[in-house]
Amino acid sequence: MAATVANGNGMPAQTALNTYVGFDTITQQIEKKLLKRGFQFNVMVVGQSGLGKSTLVNTIFASHLIDTKARLEADEVVRQTTEIENVSHFIEENGVRLKLNIVDTPGYGDQVNNDACWEPLIKYIKDQHSAYLRKELTAVRDKYIQDTRIHCCLFFIAPTGHSLKPLDIVVLKKLSQVVNVVPVIAKSDSLTLEERQAFKERIKAELHFHEIRLYPYESEEDDEQEMALNESIRDLIPFAVVGSERNVVIDGRPVRGRKNRWGVVNVENENHCEFVHLRNFLTRTHLQDLIETTADIHYEAFRSKQLLALKESSQSANSPPSQSQSPMSVSQ
Ligand SMILES: Nc1nc2c(ncn2[C@@H]2O[C@H](COP(=O)(O)OP(=O)(O)OP(=O)(O)O)[C@@H](O)[C@H]2O)c(=O)[nH]1
Ligand SMILES: [Mg+2]
């Protein structure tokens, strides 16, 4: 048996190398493999009807990915999202391929009775966890399990300037237990900067009061830099955004924007709205963390709950698991 040389505290001894060995290339080797495989990011948009959910997704990823109510021509019919729609696109940037899965949900809150309007959303999220667990537990596993788990749920708040609606609070509470929720103030071009700030503060206070736990979560593993970054994100949340599928010309340059009677809103101008902050957060700083957190926190909670329930039921029955107790049929 090989002996391990350890120093006083039981840790392996630090040994200096006499020559270049080359294992520092492991990061490049990993990168090569990852680039070949590509990445997967699944986003869900949730909120009341007509808040610009579909428009914002198209604005973030700078393409027409999903249909919106917006009409590019005056005689076009209005296209409303009426059921949970799942759209996949491959996008590529400098050799990095991202499979983007967008789950567009119909606006809720239109019905006379809005009880349990969040149920199809929660069910959808849990169904993806359940499908993943099932694939993990099969005897012959795929090398890479197709990941359809929702990594980020963008939650749209109506720009009322007052407070969150009671229905929003209920839905936010339910969602935040199963997915990374990122709230945004929709159509923030309808608020003045002062109104926007006051609205934000009120929403923050309400979220705190109702103990709604939002992403990014505090983690002991974070270093000082990550903690500072997450703190600045928590300060910004809810991001006050404006979406647009159209270009307007500003200083001779076409930019994503909205023209109204008072002037032009440039979606990408930080003085006009916080769209750029949201996009940077989703794509440049937290993309990988959103994916990891989904697996480590939300999926892990689902997985352990299901496996515990399975163990308990098989113990109480004191017999081999039957079909109804198998993880293939775990309750939602
Ligand atoms: N003023 C303003 N209008 C917006 C903004 N974003 C979208 N709109 C407009 O709002 C309307 C609804 O946009 P959609 O993106 O279809 O809204 P939705 O939330 O997907 O609607 P449902 O699918 O019916 O729930 C369209 O006419 C958009 O042009 C915004 O930031 N500001
Ligand atoms: Mg829509």
Automatic annotation (TrEMBL):
Residues 37-309 form the Septin-type G domain. Belongs to the TRAFAC class TrmE-Era-EngA-EngB-Septin-like GTPase superfamily. Septin GTPase family. It comes from the Eukaryota. GO terms for biological process: cell division; septin ring assembly; sporulation. This is Septin spn2. Keywords: Cell cycle, Cell division, GTP-binding, Nucleotide-binding. The keyword GTP-binding applies. One of its GO terms (molecular function) is GTP binding. Residues 313-332 have a biased composition (Low complexity). One of its GO terms (cellular component) is cleavage apparatus septin structure. Residues 311-332 are annotated as: Disordered. Pfam families: Septin.
